[in-house]
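Lecture 7 notes: from sequence to structure.

We start with a single chain of 200 residues. Read the sequence below before looking at the structure.
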Amino acid sequence: DDRNAGGYPQYTFVGNEGTGMRRVAANTLALDAGGEEALRIDGSGHVTMPKQPAFLATVSSEQSNIANGATITFDNEIYDRNGDYNPSSSAATINGASTTAYTFNAPVSGVYQISAVVRTNDLDSASTYWMMRINTSNREYDTIYDARALDANPLYWSFNCSVSAELDAGDVARCQMYFSGGSQQVDIETDSRFSITLLA
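Now the structure, written as tokens:
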């Protein structure tokens, strides 16, 4: 066992026994904070941080006839390393705050890599534009297409956006679709994906 008799790291601090350093295995070092492993370094110098905020979610079933301004239903979590994303259709408490559906809640202030790929079907060529927006508490990041250049409704159309964004603790981020004119007919397909990772 790489913890001491009290279940604490082998090297710790008086009055703060849950925070310290321990030997996990041969040539492998771990740092604990608050009684949980926060960082691990192996003999080859690889560094892993099991609590580092990072998630990837996809759409489990086609989201049909999406409304203007609707939040995309990224409800299928592939992973969520720190439990900071709400994949449900209702509000949930994350990091002590109420968060709306399909929304990430930043647990700490920092720079986050935010990426979204949204594949649509039956984009309406009668619309003036179609736009995919990554909407955060601080800023909006848009990918927009002028549909007036189209002479037919494209069966396959993808929206892509990737940005390094500064978020404060408690800030949220979600992915939404907007359009102007035309019909509410576009579908969001299951190979769409949304991910956020804390960089620094």
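The mean pLDDT is 94. Keep this in mind for problem set 3.
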